[in-house]
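User: Design a sequence. Structure:
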């Protein structure tokens, strides 16, 4: 898939504006001259500058390519493309109810199968990945992950 620099610049610019506006609502940090929204705003400004540079560079080159070209599009390619946003939506909708282990396991197993990994290898990678990710977030970073249906087995 090829995306023109003009379209990329527009998308990045819109994202930068959204991040900047959202960062304005971050609460101030007591005792500090700057609040928690400073760094997201700085990053948003940098992204906006990059987006303007992309758009200007594309226009200066007289880039007349299609804004979005997808040569060789077929059903498998389209399914793989849609898999990532679908996985995110599935996780957001089911994580609290099913829990991290089940939701992430379903997402990883289906992703491995869609991307051509053999089922047995995919199952092994899914189990190992879910356990490593859970250990990393839950124990090392101390980020609580939802247990969902496995609440009775929580440690």
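Assistant: Done.
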């Amino acid at each position: 898939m090829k995306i023109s620099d003009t379209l990329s610049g527009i998308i990045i610019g819109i994202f930068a504006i959204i991040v900047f506006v959202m960062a304005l609502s971050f609460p101030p940090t007591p005792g500090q001259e700057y609040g928690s929204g400073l760094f997201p705003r700085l990053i948003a400004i940098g992204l906006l500058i990059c987006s303007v540079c992309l758009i200007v560079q594309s226009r200066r080159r007289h880039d007349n390519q299609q804004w979005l070209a997808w040569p060789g599009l077929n059903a498998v390619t389209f399914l793989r493309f849609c898999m990532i946003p679908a996985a995110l939506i599935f996780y957001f909708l089911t994580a609290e109810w099913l829990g991290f282990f089940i939701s992430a396991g379903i997402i990883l197993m289906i992703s491995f199968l869609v991307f051509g990994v053999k089922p047995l290898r995919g199952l092994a990678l899914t189990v190992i990945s879910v356990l490593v990710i859970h250990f990393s977030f839950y124990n090392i970073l101390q980020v609580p992950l939802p247990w969902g249906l496995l609440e009775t087995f929580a440690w």
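The first strand starts at residue 2 and ends at 3. The radius of gyration is 21 Å.
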